[in-house]
Write a structure and sequence with these properties.
The protein is mainly beta. It contains 1 helix and 5 strands. The protein is globular.
Length: about 90
């Protein structure tokens, strides 16, 4: 009887407890859209180097700036997919 009650309680858990999935893949070309707090961080083409865990729903990525090779960690909300032949 106790086992049935535990199973029923597990089914009542909210779906938001599941880990969110990253929108972009390793190797994908993306545009970085810096916010006002990002100072002089250049916008433009970056390549996703690594998918990072996050303590919030806004997932994190390690990205590499194409022109200068500098890497930084950014939030998913700061990225947009690049479209076109050259990516």
């Amino acid at each position: 009887m106790l086992l049935v009650a535990a199973s029923a309680a597990a089914q009542d858990e909210p779906a938001e407890d599941f880990m969110p999935r990253h929108k972009f893949a390793v190797g994908q070309a993306v545009d970085f859209l810096p916010g006002p707090a990002d100072g002089n961080v250049p916008r433009g083409k970056y390549t996703v180097q690594r998918l990072m865990p996050s303590e919030t729903k806004d997932l994190q990525y390690r990205v590499k700036h194409a022109p200068d090779g500098h890497e930084r960690v950014v939030l998913e909300s700061q990225l947009a997919a690049r479209h076109g032949i050259l990516g």
